Task: structure prediction
Amino acid sequence: DAGITQSPRHKVTETGTPVTLRCHQTENHRYMYWYRQDPGHGLRLIHYSYGVKDTDKGEVSDGYSVSRSKTEDFLLTLESATSSQTSVYFCATKSPPEDTIYFGEGSWLTVV
Amino acid sequence: AQSVTQPDIHITVSEGASLELRCNYSYGATPYLFWYVQSPGQGLQLLLKYFSGDTLVQGIKGFEAEFKRSQSSFNLRKPSVHWSDAAEYFCAVGSASGGSYIPTFGRGTSLIVHP
Result:
């Protein structure tokens, strides 16, 4: 258990509205990740962070932005939500020294 | 770039039968390899991991996996499946790329267990 909390756990929003998902960790891990999970696609990396204010894009970053102002918090923002962003979003952290990835419980987002 | 392939989208087994889930990876050096399990509506739970040493690794819930470098495989096995093992299983490879650590996941294999 890596002490990862995601909020909100469930959200329904309208097309065109901004949405922010929050990931909070208690283990002081340096690396944090945001993935989305869709049927037939498995887990796809959206953005990741390797330190405070250090972030980079993953394979499906279009339409998403992130911020990390504190080690423990990693925010994922959908600036203008679209129906294609309906998905389950997972936050993860990397635990040293064996680089094991631990996941939060997920955030179910529906864009109508 | 690294990649992970899980060739089987669905696997159906009878309760009590043995199980093998396949995973092939592509990576230039020795990778870190993982198997995760996901029950419906839940997050991903780590089953086991390989970093170095003994190529047969034991995990939780009676699972094991064998790393075969020559075949670029890391297959997951269980000698006797229980109905509660029905879930989605993900294989993953982790490695450093350009100084950053990027884990890559397969698309998953859905395990169905018949009574």
